[in-house]
Write a structure and sequence with these properties.
Layout: H1 3-9, H2 13-36, H3 43-71
Helix pairs in contact: 2-3
């Protein structure tokens, strides 16, 4: 598990939502730069997509845990 995943696991549910919005905005901006030819690092899109997937995975895991706890 990488450093970024460990740091993300320490975030609360609300912080994960904020992080998701932040990454989505960065991804949108990066895609616009790509379309206009201003993007220097094309790997940035790949990294942002992977980071977004990590955050959404943690959100899903947290919601599953809360559902399981709520049913007991």
């Amino acid at each position: 598990m990488g450093k970024s995943m460990k740091a993300l696991k320490n975030l609360s549910g609300n912080e994960l939502v904020v992080k998701t919005r932040e990454i989505e905005k960065n991804l949108f901006d990066t895609n616009m730069k790509k379309v206009t030819g201003q993007l220097a690092d094309s790997a940035m899109i790949w990294r942002l997509r992977k980071e977004l997937a990590r955050v959404k995975t943690l959100q899903t895991q947290a919601s599953i845990k809360s559902d399981v706890k709520g049913k007991k």
